Amino acid sequence: MTDDTSSIPPWEQRFRAPRVSLPEWAEDAPSRSLFVSNATGTFELYTWDRDTDRRRQATRRPNGTTFGTLSPDGEWLWWFADTDGDEFGVWRRQPFGAAVEDAGADFVSGSAGDSASEPAVAGLEPSYPSGLAIGRDGTTVVGRSTDTDGSTIHVLRPGGELKEVYRHQESAGVGDLSHDSDLLVIEHTEHGDAMHSALRVVTLDGETVAELDDTEGGTRELGLAVLGFAPVAGDSRLLVGHQRRNRWEPLVWDPRTGEVTELDIDLPGDVSAEWYPDGSALLIGHGHQARSELWRFDPETGELLPVPTPKGTVSGFGARPDGSVEYVWSSAAEPPVVRSTDGGVVLDPPGPRAPASVPVEDAWVEGPGGTIHALVQRPEGEGPYPTIFEVHGGPTHHDSDSFASDPAAWVDHGFAVVRVNYRGSTGYGREWTDALKQRVGLIELEDVDAVRRWAVDSGLADPERLVLSGASWGGYLTLLGLGTQPEHWAVGLAVVPVADYVTAYHDEMEALKAMDRTLLGGSPEEVPERYRESSPITYVDAVRAPVYISAGLNDPRCPIRQVENYVDRLKERDHPHEVYRYDAGHGSLVVEERIKQVRMELSFALRHLPERSAR
């Protein structure tokens, strides 16, 4: 990457600016760390020896690599090898010091060499990954998912043979391995509700030790999530996220004794947690109204102390053995940076920082299901503005006051940007997240439409120049919205969307089939009317706006065949549209490819939007 940005527009600079993720460190060798960076133009894994400040590019593949971890002793880097972004593959490993680029402390210089990786676990066929745990004694636990086998979990002990300890057709995965490598916790959905997991703790021979299940056989919609075993020898306590009070918050469960301790943490919104390395306290991640912050909580005394962070969003955090906390912080206006409570920046890649953008404003809009929270960014000048509604994916996700290059690019081009945390979004209570069931897609679009009306009535948005846009689930909602609300949208931009729900169901990975059965109440054969009502292709003949679609040829989440079905229907109507197909999966990890796609989206919208309406 070049440092000369004088001729590059700010929106492209934001994509090209070097970034790094929160460094993960080896539990028993905390000076050895792993992070992800786009410093070479593709997101890849890097190792970092903090003692020597030596940073090495550990992987180099055409479509990038982001899924990796370190063994507890720091001797090995494990990474998942798929094919061109299809998410189907095997785990490989290589020594911590192996590199394709040995770059000193500046990331990108040095001579290339071959990676010294090898298959990590012999005897396992390729699959979709479903969790990985590596014990201090070398025990390895691998979670897998395939269409034929469903969910399986295998254990490999040092010097032993690979053993299958779990199998079920419904979704399940590796939760965590205890400090002493004698207990394994599995997150599973055997009750058939893929949105709300139950927990089972087993020995490494697969024998059940204890169960924790808040679903009551699938009749009560409460989920559990593994947050981690206590990091102390002889301690079998497990930190668990629960929803018993209509939000995510932690409890402590000892599967050997059966004791469950719900923690009284007096904060609004969702609360996550992880152990401090000595097990004496919890590092709390608190999310509320699209912002987040950190706290330190003592389970014995109930003392809750703030860990100072700026206002905005903390997107990753961890407590170091010395008690300091490292975290990634950003806001909509300020690019991300890895900071420490010790002061200063932890890891700063070379090259220019991304240009700042504009801050977000909060909008609270009354909708059919309650008050909707939306985030708004305004360009320079006076409104009403051409306005893009960027609809987030998930759907169990939410937009936050964090830095994102795509909205900033639209603001640079004179657009107001509105992001809606519709029903189905996380961060506003369990009932809000679960509200979209059975009327999938239509519920979310009711909320988007309520915010659209507010944006027009308030003078923010030009009603004739509205763009509906999104990726993944947001791309699905875009196509569905263009067909069910055709009079409202001037242009639609759908990135890696679900376009034909029935075909998507039959072609997608097994874990997503389980999620669809949960959302819609069954398979397409069991509840065909629900799939028909929620499928964009049902309404394709009603679409009025020009449509831009981009899709990955190897995408296992929103497969290409169902996109082609929708495009064929547009062709039959001779409806204005463009389709861009790229050789990767559910999005691209290559910076120039992502810039190309955003440039195409901007160009399509600017060509098809009408002139500014008279005021």
- Helix segment tally: 10
Helical fraction: 10-25%
Task: Report how far the terminal alpha carbons are from each other.
Answer: 45 Å
What is the CA-atom radius of gyration, in angstroms? Answer: 24 Å
Unreliable spans: 108-114
Helix and strand composition category: alpha+beta
- Counted beta strands: 37
Please describe the biggest sheet, giving its number of strands, its sense, and whether it closes into a barrel. 8 strands, mixed
Identify the strand order in the major beta sheet.
30-31-33-32-34-35-36-37
Which percent range describes the beta-strand content? 25-35%
Shape descriptor reads: globular
Could you report the average pLDDT, rounded to the nearest whole number?
95
Task: Briefly characterize the structure.
The protein contains ten helices and 37 strands. It is α+β, with helices and mostly antiparallel strands and 615 residues long.
